[in-house]
Amino acid sequence: MNFRRIAIEPVSGNLGAIIKGVDLAKLDDETFAEIHQAWLKYSVIFFRDQKLRPLQQIDFAKRFGEIHFHPYMRGLDDHPEILEIIKEPGDEYTFGAVWHTDQMFNPEPAKATMLYAHEVPTSGGDTQFSNQYLAYETLSEPMKGILENLKTFNVGDGFRRGVGKVNRKDRYASNPKMQAKIREPGNVPTESVHPLVRTHPETGRKSLYIGSHTQNLFGFNENEADTLIDFLRNHSTRPEFTCRFRWEVGSLALWDNRCVQHQALADYNERRRMHRITIAGDEPF
Ligand code: SIN
User: Fold this and answer.
1) Could you give the domains of the chain?
2) What are the pLDDT digits (tens) for 232-275?
3) Cβ 117 vs Cβ 247: under 8 Å
4) 235 a catalytic residue
5) Rounded distance, CA 81 to CA 21, Å?
6) Catalytic site includes residue 77
7) Which DSSP letter does residue 60 get?
8) Which of 68, 70, 100, 171 is catalytic?
């Protein structure tokens, strides 16, 4: 596709691009079509200097699909579609500070996540992203053969491995504002089995599908699975597969959870406030 309405500035060699020349509050269909193509090509896209009211952010999100509601975390009272991620000085817990892909514990995980910055630290608080197409493509052919038909077991809470404290309420204890948002998931499923190698439904490319929610490989003993999961989690976040985004007030990021892992960096002690919307996805195959 030729991009005529937007300008694109890649942020690293392997994923991520800043999209310029766009006011997301006043988006026409042609510009959106180019943004959508750029998103599929770069897997995570960024915008600067946006001025979005909550309803305008929700409208932009809805262009990508239905809103996905976080089963464990309550959204804003007046806009439940938006989860406010907030960290105050003195808080020790940082939401999302481990490599993961969003809502992997759901049988139909969120396909995309949009994060919009309202308040940012003077330094630190960046987010990192890693290209999972490359994570798959750089494996040897014998390893691809081993992984091809394996399935992962993923959970949303009660972690056996990976994220420190087992339960969400305990993990969030040192960030009271985030802890106050925790809710019971009710009948929303929070465990799921997914292919370890998935095919992107829009690009047709294969990618590795693994993250902090992954607890086991289906049918494996735990110690066998741990060895392989540890290798794959290290491999899939190799520095050359990643990019890193420095937030400013008014920045917006949109990433594709079907082919990207991400993590928030916990390297600051100032207020940071972001508005996050996730977009519903399909069952991975
Ligand atoms: C997330 O994992 O959704 C949050 C990322 C961030 O706050 O940078």
Assistant:
1) 7-279 (3.60.130.10)
2) 999 999 999 999 999 999 999 999 999 999 999 999 999 999 99
3) yes
4) no
5) 27
6) no
7) H
8) 100
